[in-house]
Specification:
The complex is a heterodimer of chains A (247) and B (367). Chain A contains nine helices and ten strands. By secondary structure, chain A is an alpha/beta fold. A six-stranded mixed β-sheet of chain A has the order 6-7-8-3-9-10, with helices on both faces. Chain A has a four-stranded antiparallel β-sheet with strand order 2-1-4-5, covered by helices on one side. In chain A, 45% of the residues are buried. Chain B is an all-alpha fold. Chain B contains 15 helices and one strand, in the order αααααααααααααβαα. In chain B, helix 10 packs across helix 12. Classes of the chains: A alpha/beta (247), B mainly alpha (367). Chains A and B meet through helix 2, strand 6 and helix 3 of A and helix 11 and helix 12 of B.
């Protein structure tokens, strides 16, 4: 097995003094691996992936991303954020900037790429998510599915090694979920390392190398999708799966 | 069985909804209550308007003649006081024969302010224009070079002083307010504490006492022999005062920005200052344009308080001009109306400009 690109080593996190949200997390992610994380709400799955780009701080244990350990060192955090793209449930596009400006902002200011080149790259990413014709519009003029695809394109503009998806389809109307999932499947097939918190089990079956089930801050079970869905080991997993696959 | 389609010709509305008469019917005489209120207002207007017109126009004395004004007292306005005293009111105690200097300086500053409001001029050269115009303003007012007679700052007065105080304190207070607002939300306890203390202390005292301290108390703590110009001390006082209020307005805007915006900026690798400048502040400030403009207008009018530390800006120089002349002292009302008109012209322009800014900023919100 190749050197892992992300390593959690006994990582713990608390909110305040009493809410133990991540408990002794051990996890290593190989380069190019596609992981789907599921679990009931409050299980710590969003917190887990938000630790990877330091939107949340862990308080105990070691977390190494792309060879750099996450500490309070601002330079290290900035270095890691350049390698990690993230897509949020609420899109978090910048409403005062056009779609194109949303995409060129970070390359121009963080990557110091000249404007013309940044725009060229941005248009290429917009084509990739099939939304190039909306480049001049403002985010709020687009549908939810279109906004989320713009958000994916924005993250890709920095050519990250790792992509994090935090419930990317949970805020979408049902008829828009597919257009976003299609883009994500395409992306998954191109070999980028992906960690995705989602309840789209169809997506998990189609692209995931590994499915992780979390509950109460712990990783309860992890397996390849085939065994995870067909032969779940723990009672807790069986119970969860019966609830989300039951209808 | 299908129903055959029959096209219906467009018909005009049975009751016209456009034009003056329908508008009045809807808004002034819509129901008995509003009809009664309209009639009462109309009666009051008819009662008062002739009296006002009689006083302000028909029986008014326009000539700068104190005897005629005395004769018309109680029946007609004495606009002659403006004709007689306008130079003293507008330029204060500035040496009379040198008053072309504040006139030119004021026009330059006014031109700069107008130009700064026009989108066409929003380019780096504008900053240079500010430096040049302010330097010219001070050179003209202060003199002492190029053969201009020196004029100390305590003789500056009237509209030039009002404009200078308002402009510089607004220009100084706004960035300070942004920094304090950001500081109050900082994760660093020391910075946060300093900002909270600053805002609470300054907000807790009246502007008059800040000006007093700047003018009279501050020099006591200076080493003997050194002194800072009273104008500078007062400017700093007004700026600090205004910034404390504005900081809270800006903070209100910052709090309205969803947390996700900062997280998205972080995720993209933007530094703290890049994120504030490009993402957070443009949105936060756009939300609080009405509040900020409110504050700007308040600063403009609050400059009238510097009279208490013997700087005679527009209001002060008006009082000075009339109090020193017993012939004209009785006609303060007319003089007050005159400077009120000047204040109104400035404040109304600012408020219209703020509406224009709001319109510009609302573009991205249009779905």
């Amino acid at each position: 097995m190749t050197e892992p690109i992300i390593t959690f080593d006994k990582v713990n996190k608390w909110y305040g003094n009493s809410f133990h949200v991540l408990r002794d997390i051990d996890l290593s992610v190989a380069k190019g691996e596609r992981i789907v994380i599921c679990g009931p709400s409050g299980s710590g799955k969003s917190t887990l992936i938000r630790c990877i780009n330091r939107l949340e701080e862990h308080q105990q244990g070691r977390l190494v991303v792309d060879g750099v350990e996450l500490t309070d060192d601002v330079k290290a955090i900035e270095a890691i954020r350049r390698q990690v793209g993230m897509v949020f449930q609420q899109f978090n596009l910048f409403p005062h900037l056009t779609v194109l400006e949303n995409l060129t902002l970070a390359p121009m200011w963080v990557g110091k790429v000249p404007k013309a080149e940044a725009e060229e790259r941005a248009m290429a990413q917009l084509k990739r998510v099939r939304i190039a014709e909306q480049a001049g519009k403002y985010p709020l003029q687009l549908s939810g599915g279109q906004q989320q695809r713009v958000a994916i394109a924005r993250a890709l503009c920095l050519t990250p090694k790792i992509m994090l998806f935090d419930e990317p389809t949970s805020a979408l109307d049902p008829e828009m979920i597919k257009e976003v999932l299609d883009v994500m499947i395409e992306l998954a097939n191109q070999g980028i390392t992906m960690l995705c918190v989602t309840h789209e089990m169809g997506f998990a079956k189609a692209v995931a190398d590994r499915v992780i089930f979390m509950d109460q801050g712990q990783i309860i079970e992890q397996n390849n999708p085939h065994d995870f869905f067909d032969h779940p080991q723990s009672e807790r997993t069986k119970d969860f799966l019966s609830k989300i696959l039951g209808h | 069985m299908s129903i055959p389609f029959v096209a219906i010709e467009a018909r005009p509305a049975p009751v016209s909804t456009e034009g003056l008469v329908p508008w009045m019917r809807r808004n002034l005489f819509g129901n008995p209550t509003s009809t009664v209120i309209t009639l009462i207002m109309l009666a009051l207007a008819l009662l008062w308007l002739p009296k006002l017109l009689n006083w302000a126009v028909v029986h008014a004395v326009v000539a700068a003649n104190a005897d005629q004004c005395q004769a018309a007292r109680g029946t007609g306005a004495c606009w002659g006081v403006v004709a007689e005293k306008y130079r003293l009111i507008i330029f204060g105690r500035y040496p009379f024969e040198q008053q072309w200097r504040p006139l030119v300086a004021t026009l330059l500053l006014g031109g700069l302010l107008v130009a700064s409001c026009v989108r066409h001029f929003w380019r780096p050269q504008l900053a240079l224009a500010w430096v040049v115009v302010l330097a010219l303003f001070f050179a003209l007012m202060r003199g002492g070079l190029l053969g201009l007679a020196p004029v100390e700052t305590d003789r500056w007065g009237g509209l030039p002083l009002t404009m200078l105080l308002a402009t510089l304190s607004i220009v100084g207070a706004f960035p300070l307010a942004v920094l304090v607002a950001l500081g109050r939300r900082s994760k660093m306890p020391a910075i946060k504490t300093v900002c909270v203390l600053y805002v609470e202390l300054i907000r807790g005292v009246p502007l008059v006492s800040v000006l007093f301290m700047a003018s009279f108390m501050f020099p006591l703590f200076m080493p003997p022999g050194t002194s800072i110009d009273v104008l500078v001390r007062v400017l700093v006082g007004i700026t600090l005062f205004a910034a404390a209020y504005m900081a809270e307005i800006v903070r209100g805007g910052l709090q309205a920005i969803p947390k996700g915006q900062q997280e998205a900026a972080d995720t993209l690798g933007l530094t703290y200052w890049q994120a504030q400048r490009k993402i957070i502040l443009p949105q936060a400030l756009a939300l609080v344009v009405p509040g900020i403009m409110n504050n700007f207008i308040a600063i403009f009018k609050d400059t009238s308080l510097v009279t208490i530390v013997s700087l005679y800006e527009l209001t002060g120089s008006m009082s000075l001009a009339l109090n020193s002349d017993s012939n004209w002292r009785p006609f303060k009302i007319e003089a007050y109306l005159f400077i009120a008109a000047i204040y109104f012209a400035f404040c109304f322009s600012m408020s219209r400009y703020s509406l224009w800014i709001e319109k510009q900023l609302s573009r991205s919100k249009n779905r």
